[in-house]
Amino acid sequence: MANIQQRLPENAPGDFFVDASCIDCDTCSQLAPAVFRDHGEQCSVHHQPRSEAETRLALMALVACPTGSIGTTKKHDAHIGIDAFPMLIADNVYFCGFTSEASFGGWSYLIVRPQSEGGNILIDSPRFASQLVKRIADMGGISQMLLTHRDDIADHKLFAGRFGCKRIMHAEDGALTIGIEQIIAGDQAVVLEDELLAIPTPGHTRGHMVFLYKHKFLFTGDHLAWSPARKTLTAFRSVAWYSWTRQTESMATLANYNFEWVLPGHGDLHHDTTENMRYHLESCIAWMKAHR
User: Fold this and answer.
1) Phi-psi region of 139 (alpha: psi -120 to 50; beta: other; left: phi over 0)
2) What is the pLDDT of residue 76?
3) How many C-alpha atoms does 188 have within 13 Å on its Cβ side?
């Protein structure tokens, strides 16, 4: 729970505020950019909500914050934020909200499908919050959990225990040591289902993977995201824990695939046509090669 005594001075006066426990994951500024901003090293309220819609998004950011760093001076109905998750992105793909401090606020996603089509799929792990767990159960539970890399596994054991789902992860990120049911090895893409592909993309970590669903949704973990500043796709050189050279090489392999959505764990998501996404990916690869 946010502490009013630690309210950051960068906050605009008024109801909503961010306190000094903020870890700068940018969840709030991505969910509610009209209210929150990254002022450098931390986030703050740059403008108090001016409408019911903005208030709802601000309450969603409060719920999604991994460190409970967002607070209010007035009383609000908490369920406005809680019941908004999982939040529909497009088709049958949802953002889970309830990010975890254990994964530095990494975003996780839920693909909702009937059991006849294989059941629901969780991509990376949100916080194991009772409200979210109940909502996921009401939506059909979890049949599979796809883990992009070791940094964003958070409460995977608790979700696996609750829903009995099969977890999938790459061997090079320590999958064997944490009891993963299906372990991917090597650098070749693996067909998990007719419309679901696991693509190894080493770089951020040695065993990083991205997952492509329906040749439309690319779940990219910490490999690839949208840059609002550069207005194109980007990678994060400063957190290429394993190898920037390998990340550049594995990024180039994504040019073999079509997708319309980039849904990252960290960084901004983005939607565009297949053709435009290919252009932005090629721009990203060229930029990475120039910054080796």
Assistant:
1) alpha
2) 97
3) 2
- Domain positions in the chain: 4-74, 85-290
Task: Note whether 42 and 21 are within 8 A (CB).
Answer: no
- Residues 180/193, Cβ–Cβ less than 8 Å: no
**Which pLDDT does position 282 carry in this prediction?**
98
Reported confidence tier of residue 292, pLDDT bands at 50, 70, 90: confident
Q: What is the pLDDT of residues 193-207, one digit of tens each?
A: 999 999 999 999 999
**Is the separation of the CB atoms in 187 and 139 below 8 Å?**
no
Q: Please, which residues have CB within 8 angstroms of residue 116's CB and are 6 or more apart in sequence?
A: none
For all residues of the chain together, what is the average pLDDT? 97
The four Cα atoms 250, 252, 258, 260 give a dihedral, to 10 degrees, of 80
Burial class of residue 275, CB neighbours in 10 A (0-12, 13-18, 19+): exposed
Token pair for 186: 């090597």
Q: How confident is the model at residue 69 (pLDDT cuts 50, 70, 90)?
A: very high
The two tokens of residue 86 are: 């999982």
Among the listed residues 224, 243, 221, 235, the one whose alpha carbon sits nearest the alpha carbon of residue 168: 221
Whether residue 1 is predicted with pLDDT greater than 90 in this model: the reply is: no
Strand 109-111, strand 121-123: pairing: antiparallel
pLDDT band at 20 (very low <50, low <70, confident <90, very high): very high
Which DSSP symbol is given to 181? S
For 4-74, CATH gives: 3.30.70.20
Instruction: Classify domain 85-290 at the CATH class level.
Output: alpha beta
Per the CB < 8 A criterion, the answer to whether 53 and 11 are in contact is no
